[in-house]
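Running this now, will post back.
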Amino acid sequence: MDQANVSRISSKRAEQTVYVPPGRRSNGGSQGAISDAKQNTRQTSEVVRRVPPSCCEPDDSEEQTLPKTNPPAGSTASAEQSPKNLNAVTSEFQEKTALKKRMSSNEKRRNDSVEFVTERRVLSRKSNQAGEGSRESSAVSPNEIVRPYFVRPPQKKNEPEMSVERFHTNEVCYIDSHCHTDFIFSMMPKRNYHDGLQNWLDGYPKASNKGFAGCIVNFIDPALFVDEKNNRDFDMEWIQEELKCPFYLGTTWGCHPHQAQKWGTSQGFWDALNNVLAPPNSHFLKVRAIGECGIDLHRCISDLEIQKEVFEKHIELAFKYDLPLVIHCRNGSKGQSENICLEILAKQMNKPGNHRYLKIHRHCYTEDWVTAKKWLKQCPDVHFGFTPGILLFKEHQLNAVRNIPLDRILLETDAPYFKPKVFEGIAPPKTTLPPMAIAAAYKIAELKGLSPEEVLRATYNNTRRMYRLEFDD
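Update: finished.
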């Protein structure tokens, strides 16, 4: 972005020499010049963790976890205690192992039990001090300690068997159509001033694969891009630096329902949003859509009437700038948000000069097929985004995936949320990265009786069409 356009977005930060990304600042906001000594100290120190709340994940995760099982009495499960009689203990473990194998031959008992096996580690003095050891199958010796470990029980039927290695062999292009890199930044346990998407992809190579083409990034916390007095979270410099990364295929901008009460009533927010959406800033900021916006009746503190008003204004901007609309819609104890969203959309679409063919990304869809048909009937150009949360879907939700046409489906992560368990241990804890959208593609393929490659190609083309992405294949 040239200097004139940058000054229109942030005249107050024009003299800054060092900026601090969101969540990195100890005082919670943008800062002016910092001395070299202070800068070096802060770059090497751990950042205070500031985690945004999840707006789409279920309250209680239903994903399968390994049951906690205590080893049999008399075993040597603790690494700190060595058995007095190693041969006796080994014999006892072998007997229990044989017993468990006989039990596993019984179908009924096998379904309710966890297989119990033994692990042998030969511990030298050197490795014993370091807490390390190597597995061997040799006979028991005085230096050998036999410990129990437990094998994961069979997966649930609705959770497909996946492996990261299988993802790594994929070379078919795909796109994560919805993620939040500013929230990912806040979830990282350690971070530096300019850490961003490229750093995370380089730092966790096993979390990605050759087919990952890029992502559509949503900026939905107005505090990050509205330059108002006393707003210490403003940080357009970090966004502009991030957009240099080639994996940023596009961006969307708006006010999430959770922020409607605070920012939706601020004229400063609407002025800033119009400034972002209008040329030439829209070109430099890779603007591809408006939102996410909508209605949340689950645990949102924003007043419903304010949510409605803010949602209507987003729709008006979508028609004004001829941009797609990303919609967040979540039912709750206060009512059915799907019906409210559809009513507001119908009202706006029927206004003079508007139309029914507004491009809509129904983000993070978790409802049934009946509700999906309502969206398809009223909004002919609607697309449904599915995250790796699909691995936890119940039957009525799975049925919706089976019936929604493939040309109306988008892959998304809603990163940093909905992390698939297959990526545990090879990526940041409890943090999803955009390439992990591939896990949703494999589940969709299973439900529709297609190959993963077919789903990846279709959703890749759907995302390009939805967000009007043009680049060489």
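The longest strand covers residues 287-296. More later if anyone needs it.
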